[in-house]
TrEMBL record, chain A:
Taxonomic superkingdom: Eukaryota
Cellular component aspect of the GO annotation: cytoplasm
Stated name of the protein: COBW domain-containing protein 1
Region described as Disordered: 1-23
Pfam family, one: cobW
Gene from which this protein is expressed: Cbwd1
Gene3D superfamilies found in the cross-reference section: CobW-like, C-terminal domain, P-loop containing nucleotide triphosphate hydrolases
InterPro entries membership: CobW-likC_sf, CobW/HypB/UreG_nucleotide-bd, P-loop_NTPase, Zinc-reg_GTPase_activator
Ranges in a coiled coil: none
Record PANTHER family: COBW-RELATED, ZINC-REGULATED GTPASE METALLOPROTEIN ACTIVATOR 1A-RELATED
CobW/HypB/UreG nucleotide-binding domain span: 31-229
UniProtKB/TrEMBL annotation, chain B:
Keyword Hydrolase on entry: yes
Organism per entry: Lachnellula arida
Top EC class for this record: hydrolase
Protein name: Methionine aminopeptidase
Domain C6H2-type: 8-62
Database matches in Pfam families: Peptidase_M24, zf-C6H2
Cofactor details (free text): Binds 2 divalent metal cations per subunit. Has a high-affinity and a low affinity metal-binding site. The true nature of the physiological cofactor is under debate. The enzyme is active with cobalt, zinc, manganese or divalent iron ions. Binds 2 divalent metal cations per subunit. Has a high-affinity and a low affinity metal-binding site. The true nature of the physiological cofactor is under debate. The enzyme is active with zinc, cobalt, manganese or divalent iron ions. Has high activity with zinc; zinc cofactor is transferred into the active site region by the ZNG1 zinc chaperone.
Protein role: Cotranslationally removes the N-terminal methionine from nascent proteins. The N-terminal methionine is often cleaved when the second residue in the primary sequence is small and uncharged (Met-Ala-, Cys, Gly, Pro, Ser, Thr, or Val).
Biological classification of the source: Eukaryota, Fungi, Dikarya, Ascomycota, Pezizomycotina
Compartment(s) of residence: Cytoplasm
InterPro entries: Creatinase/aminopeptidase-like, Pept_M24, Pept_M24_MAP, Pept_M24A_MAP1, Zfn-C6H2
Principal subcellular localisation of the protein: cytoplasm
Enzymatic reactions: Release of N-terminal amino acids, preferentially methionine, from peptides and arylamides
Length: 386, 408
């Protein structure tokens, strides 16, 4: 079956100086993008477009993450190959890594690395449940990293999807803290797919009028003011880089310019909130961590210390889907915060010598029950004065 | 990792005792096998006809799923054999089959749900995967009891772990000791694990299957015992020196004591409010100071009426694990520490996890209960428990002065 049956042994290769095969830290890591969207939003068309487009990249497409042990399509220069994903048995219990991550890693070990991996979810998937699985701890030295989440929406149907519970309101998984007592406004899978997205592709724009398209755009931006929005027809995108690929949505935060003006009430369920905060001293970082733990782990905004503590506990409960922050320190360093659902990390910002010094830090939160809450007061009171 | 020194590699050539440099078989590399080193092109050429068979086993994707048809010739005297003769083992250790027949647990002892089909269905429910259980006083008493029994069983089997016995013999001891205590040996058929205890010698990180291999003077052996008693699991393990040779080997002592002490350091942190993500920082810091690495693929786990549940407790630094310890939670911490690489590889038996460089690893584990103001080590040692810390052999200081431990 293969060429190595002919007799001559190949020349040995000298691996000295070729990076550290064992170290892992300096291995090149392959980006993975999660692609979500309702059935009919055009995911498959888009992925086929990518698979057939000449881009000179070896892109693996994993169809339907719910069934990850099934197959995977790899595109190498226009040629498509189906592969079986091998899901190791081993210990389901105490293995830290998600099985899907393991399966992809072991495939790459055998077949050589891909340039890129696209993971298509089912139409009903909540990307907030998937993202933490693929946002692998840096300490684990995985050969893949989460590049970002791309959500496709169907310009014609998205408003309807947002307003009526097409399926039983919302997926129950991951929503165990259902804010005892007050159910809050309707939350659909469409909300979840938009709120977690780093890039939103408004597809099928040719099927709606200009006014309708503007309404869609405004609604989407009100939900998620951070995501980059692209408008397309037939799932065709002008270029892949920065669009679907190389998003760096989990290692960089960009400028954090929020699309719509401040907090908008256009969507009753989900909104984006920006908090401007002062430059922090390094000693305040543990307080920042504690504030984030309260907001993300306990779903609770710490009450500002200026009294008013007990007036209404509900005022301080919330549900965060995504958080990003850029926080300049008094030392001149810049910290960034990345978070999806309850998982978060505080990192050093990538070095950018050309950047002008920033006078303010910025925290952007996307989630539920965010309106009319004293975010800034809470934060300042938690981290203390500089 | 930068701190890892380049391993002394042996040439893969079957007839060659030379150390290998940095020359690797290109086909192996392409297939993702990174340990295929040869001393020279000549030697490679000489061994090509046998070496290339390795590529065959690897290039077939399914070779890891379907056991190879070839099995090695059984030893004519013992009838023992290696079930995976073409597998590229990472170190000197080999499986020694056949495994002994299945050991039964009397029907009078309550079984966990996976006893028959191997599937721990109760762990796979949404609740089992997401919720961290807070145990009430009665449940805590149940945990206390099973953990004490588990400690008794570990102590009994540890006393029997001496040069000349097989790991299967140790399995028999564990099995009987469990049954005597009206307990089901939790590993048995958990995810189809075939035996009642995990025995992990030398380069085995964890989940070693007891077989016919005879322990030799100089081995280190981890024994991982879990009992299921009156509805609760109690889980602990320790690594033991087999014979005096092991106690005299500086590397073995270094890795075993690093594992023991890193667990102790981590346990010191446990109290209500302590963050799950912080234990790994302490463990990795300690291991690194001993010039060891932390295995990352396996972590500690919640334990109660379920064998494995939330929370996950990674042992490596800088993890993003969510959550804090609260009074009434039970979980394990069980760092696995290696002399060389932290990277792991699983044998085709789907259980045995070994280091990719074949160097030794050690592990210690306790089941912990978070108390009102700290922690109770439910599986704590008794005053007369076998094993326990030993000092660095004196010879090490003399011959190994270069590593900074010297007292010149």
């Amino acid at each position: 079956m293969d060429f190595e049956d002919d007799e001559a042994p190949p020349l040995l290769v000298d691996v000295e100086g070729q990076g550290d095969a064992e170290g892992g830290a300096d291995r090149t890591r392959v980006p993975i993008t999660i692609v979500t969207g309702y059935l009919g939003a055009g995911k498959t068309t888009l992925l086929n477009y990518i698979l057939n487009e000449q881009h000179g990249k070896k892109i693996a497409v994993i169809l339907n993450a719910a069934d990850i042990e099934k197959t995977l399509t790899v595109n190498t220069g226009g040629e498509q190959v189906q592969e079986w994903l091998e899901v190791g048995n081993g210990c389901i219990c105490c293995s830290v890594k998600d099985q899907g991550v393991n399966a992809i890693e072991s495939l790459m070990e055998k077949k050589g690395a891909f340039d890129y991996i696209l993971l298509e979810t089912t139409g009903l998937a909540d990307p907030g449940n998937l993202a933490p699985l693929f946002w692998v701890d840096e300490g684990l030295g995985s050969s893949i990293y989460l590049d970002g989440i791309v959500t496709l929406i169907d310009a014609k149907n998205v408003l309807k999807n947002l307003d009526e519970p097409a399926q039983e309101a919302l997926p129950s998984e991951g929503h165990e803290h259902e804010h005892d007592g007050h159910a809050g406004p309707l939350l659909t899978t469409a909300h979840l797919q938009i709120s977690h997205a780093d890039v939103i592709v408004i597809n099928k724009s040719d099927l709606v009028s200009e006014e309708e398209l503007e309404a869609v755009q405004a609604r989407v931006q009100a939900i998620n003011g951070l995501a980059k929005i692209h408008i397309t027809q037939h799932g065709q995108v002008p270029q892949l880089e920065g669009f679907l690929l190389d998003l760096h949505a989990y290692d960089n935060v960009g400028t954090l310019d929020v699309g719509s003006r401040g907090h908008s009430h256009l969507d009753p369920s989900i909104s984006t909130v920006t908090i401007l905060v002062p430059v922090l001293a390094p000693e305040q970082l543990p307080h920042l961590d504690a504030w984030l733990r309260s907001v993300l782990w306990d779903s609770k905004l710490p009450a500002p210390s200026n009294g008013a503590e007990d007036e209404d506990k509900d005022n301080y409960s919330l549900e965060i889907h995504r958080v990003k922050a850029k926080l300049p320190l008094s030392t001149g360093d810049i910290k960034i915060v990345q978070g999806v659902r309850d998982v978060f990390d505080i990192l050093d910002a990538p070095q950018n010598p050309s950047a002008e010094p920033t006078l303010n830090g910025k925290i952007v939160l996307i989630g539920r029950f965010l309106l009319n809450k004293p975010f800034k007061e809470s934060f300042i009171s938690a981290v203390g004065q500089t | 990792m930068a701190s890892e020194s380049p391993a002394k590699r042996k040439c893969m050539g079957g007839d060659c005792d030379n150390d290998a440099g940095t020359l690797q078989c290109p086909t192996c590399l392409k297939l993702g096998m990174k340990e295929s080193y040869f001393c020279s092109q000549d030697c490679f050429k000489r061994n090509w006809s046998t070496h290339k068979a390795v590529h065959k086993t690897q290039s077939n994707f399914l070779s890891n799923l379907i056991p190879p048809k070839v099995i090695s010739e059984p030893d004519p005297v013992t009838g023992n054999y290696n079930p995976f003769p073409t597998f590229p083992f990472t170190g000197p250790l080999r499986p020694v089959y056949p495994l002994s027949p299945w050991r039964e647990v009397p029907k009078s002892i309550p079984y966990p749900d996976y006893w028959k089909d191997g599937i721990p269905a109760s762990e796979q429910t949404f609740k089992g995967r997401t919720k961290i259980e807070i145990l009430d006083k009665k449940q805590q008493e149940g945990m206390r009891k099973v953990c004490r029994l588990a400690r008794e069983v570990l102590d009994i089997v540890a006393a029997a772990a001496v040069p000349g016995v097989t790991t299967d013999y140790l399995d028999e001891i564990v099995h009987k000791a469990c049954v005597e205590r009206k307990s089901y040996p939790s590993p048995l058929n958990y995810g189809q694990f075939p035996k009642s205890v995990c025995t992990s010698p030398n380069e085995v990180i964890c989940h070693g299957i007891p077989d016919q291999r005879v322990l030799v003077d100089g081995d280190i052996l981890n024994i991982d015992v879990t009992l299921y008693h009156e509805g609760f699991h109690g889980d602990l393990n320790e690594t033991y020196y087999i014979g005096d040779k092991a106690k005299a080997d500086p590397d073995s002592v270094r890795v075993v004591e690093a594992a023991r002490e890193s667990l102790n350091e981590a346990i010191k942190l446990v109290k209500p409010g302590a963050l799950f993500r912080d234990y790994g920082d302490v463990i990795e810091k300690y291991a690194k100071a001993q010039k060891c690495s932390v295995i990352k693929a396996y972590c500690g786990h919640g334990i109660n009426s379920l064998f494995h549940c939330k929370p996950n407790i990674p042992h490596y630094a800088k993890n993003k694990t969510v959550g804090v310890a609260k009074e009434g939670m039970c979980f394990t911490i069980e760092p696995m520490i290696a002399l060389g690489t932290h990277r792991d590889k699983t044998w085709p038996d789907d259980w045995t996890s070994v280091t990719q460089d074949g160097k030794r690893t050690a592990q210690f584990e306790h089941t912990l209960l978070v108390t009102e103001d700290g922690v109770e080590i439910l599986t704590a040692r008794f005053p007369d428990s076998p094993g326990g810390p030993i000092p660095m052999p004196v010879a090490a200081v003399e011959t190994n002065g270069a590593n900074g431990n010297g007292v010149h």
